[in-house]
Input
Amino acid sequence: MSKRDYYEVLGVERSATDDELKKAFRRLAMKCHPDRCPDDPQAQDKFKEAKEAYEVLCDAERRALYDRHGHAAFEGGAGRAGAGAGFGDVGDIFGDIFGDIFGMGGRGRAARGSDLRYLLDLDLEDAVFGCERQIEVPTAVACAACKGSGSEDGRSATCGTCRGHGRVRMQNGIFSVQQPCPHCGGAGRVIEKPCKRCRGEGRVQDTRTLSVRIPAGVDAGDRIRLSGQGEAGPAGTPAGDLYVEVRLRAHPIFQRDGNDLHCEVPVRIGQATLGATIPVPTLEGEVELSVPPETQTGQVFRLRGRGVKSVRNGRSGDLICRVVVETPVRLTKAQRELLQAFEASFDDEGGAQHTPRAHSFLDGVKQFWSRVTS
Output
């Protein structure tokens, strides 16, 4: 049975580019692979036909021979794509194509530099209003002598082990496993004259100084991604990314909870008892807080919109003030006498109506002891 034209098999023009060939084969692989079409007895033959066509046309030398002589160029077995291939060969190129889709690495795919993490400590004010910081990052950077190529003369050659594919196949019975080429590290090319400074790595250890813009409203744990500012990759490969993670220093007044701020507001006994208007600090200046009469310790007041403006949706949180009634210290003789008279007035009028929580507590204690001793 005569073979079909390879271009016809893949459904492409004779002028198709490498990318067009790869896309065409990927489309057929998805459609005809035997594992995807177990009920189609012709699926294996269709896939092997597409695989054979792709293996010839994706290689520049074999494609040139095919364009000149057709199938006769590979008759006799030498260099014939797919000749005598068993079903294990199907897994080879199928894994190569679909490795690209699922990030498993494919033909000619090389590594990239590692991503880096940098912890940046900020004051609360800097995180709320935004700032710009200079950071120093010790990392691998592109070698200046060879401009990151790893080659002294800027040249490289096709890897003889993987023939430029970047991957090699290990056969174990019916199983076929692909892995990065151990000779070129998956790059598909090797350096003949390594750079003396970086020894062919294309990178050296150094400390870089970077300027980082911190957007207003970031919180502890937020990360800022600096694309391409991570560790330089092996020769000829891209750098990784740098992730700057924010940490907040403790603040003497405020504690942050998301976009809300919390603070304790001390008030004197007289202010809590009679009511008062007292100044309260915010990140944008003082505001007045109205404390009503008979305010107790622990009572909470919420000042709307006085918190942090979110970096994500622009909405502002609240400032939550917790009142702490402060006991006076270092009293003068006159102040002490006034307080003694004030305290004595509770006995004259009956203190239960003025200190309900204290009296309910004492009543509970009496009931507890009466049960214990009875």
